[in-house]
Design a protein that fits this description.
With 135 residues, this protein is α+β, with helices and mostly antiparallel strands. Helices cover 31% and strands 21% of the residues.
Length: 135
């Protein structure tokens, strides 16, 4: 998968096509409280950026942010979803994600991964993020 950026002026076309995949990713993601309407607005405003695998026949989607983490600009993969499948070369996909990182002046790629994703990617644990609740 070679992720291609969806320009802001085309978000309203592509977002509805990908919203089912994004909704599923939101439900599986432990680290976001986005709703589909909130995510759509964030994409429209340029607060987050949507990438698809193909402009003509999009089957996979990725939403990223470029926050400052530990005093460095990073590419944060907020959500990934789609049909996936055996035809996706994940090594090639991540090489392309790292090109996006470099082109945007980021030092690293980070994400909160579900357990199943650890099989797919080589990772280095940065920290254990926990939400601490008041007893």
């Amino acid at each position: 998968m070679k992720p291609v950026l969806v320009p802001l002026e085309h978000v309203d076309y592509y977002f509805p096509l990908m919203s089912g995949y994004l909704d599923k990713a939101i439900k599986h993601n432990r680290c976001t409280s986005w709703t589909i309407p909130e995510l759509w607005m964030a994409c429209r405003k340029g607060d987050v950026f949507m990438f698809v695998d193909d402009y003509q026949n999009p089957r996979n989607v990725m939403v990223v942010e470029f926050p400052i983490y530990a005093n460095e600009r990073v590419l944060y993969i907020a959500l990934m979803g789609g049909q996936g499948g055996p035809d996706i070369d994940w090594d090639e996909t991540m090489k392309n994600v790292h090109k996006i990182k470099e082109n945007n002046g980021c030092k690293r790629v980070i994400s909160h991964l579900r357990d199943g994703w650890f099989r797919r990617f080589k990772t280095k644990k940065l920290t254990t993020l926990c939400e601490i609740e008041v007893p």
